[in-house]
Amino acid sequence: MTDRTVRISKYLAKHLRHDPGAIGITLDAQGWVPIDELLDAAARDGFPITRDELSRAVSDNDKQRYAIAGDLIRASQGHSVAVDLGLPPVEPPAILYHGTAPRSLAAIKASGLLPMSRQYVHLSADRATAERVGARRGTPVMLVVASGEMHAGGHEFRVSANGVWLADAVPPEFLRFPG
């Protein structure tokens, strides 16, 4: 990805996941916004984006963070604003993974994984993805989630269009800590 494409992706994340009102857009109940409305708002905000640049930022994103359907765009997951992505509950694999910073371990051991400012806790089906996500804040600590046991105990899971597993929370008894 070029530097410009990365900047566009970060701009999209901010406004499609966290703060649409900052540029004067409104997401519908499922998180969608018309592409033309987004592009007009970005231009008014002093960050003009062409349709080609937008298409590249969506298609080149290695995590497939955004989805386009016709003339609409939305973030695939990771919202801190309330949206209903329309993801049905599904049975998870027996084990999922979560990468986190070492400084978070004490709180996680006490309270489990919480969504914090987001709607859901994000989990990965493979360790490598969780390590990449966790490494954003230094050397990650890998947690194993006994998602099959959780699901059997009545907890729901969803999976986003880009393969991120979502849970309301993960209680500490379903976490396996290193060491």
Automatic annotation (TrEMBL):
What is the protein's given name?
Probable RNA 2'-phosphotransferase
* Organism, as annotated: Nonomuraea africana
* Entry keyword set: NAD, Transferase
NCBIfam families noted in UniProt: PRK00819.1-4
Gene that encodes the chain = kptA
Species lineage: Bacteria, Bacillati, Actinomycetota, Actinomycetes, Streptosporangiales
- Its family? Belongs to the KptA/TPT1 family.
In short, the EC number is 2.7.1.-
Per the entry, what this protein does is: Removes the 2'-phosphate from RNA via an intermediate in which the phosphate is ADP-ribosylated by NAD followed by a presumed transesterification to release the RNA and generate ADP-ribose 1''-2''-cyclic phosphate (APPR>P). May function as an ADP-ribosylase.
Could you cite one Gene Ontology molecular function of this protein? transferase activity
Q: Which Pfam families match?
A: PTS_2-RNA
Q: Which InterPro entries match?
A: Ptrans_KptA/Tpt1, RNA_2'-PTrans_C, RNA_2'-PTrans_KptA, RNA_2'-PTrans_N
| SUPFAM superfamilies, per the entry | ADP-ribosylation
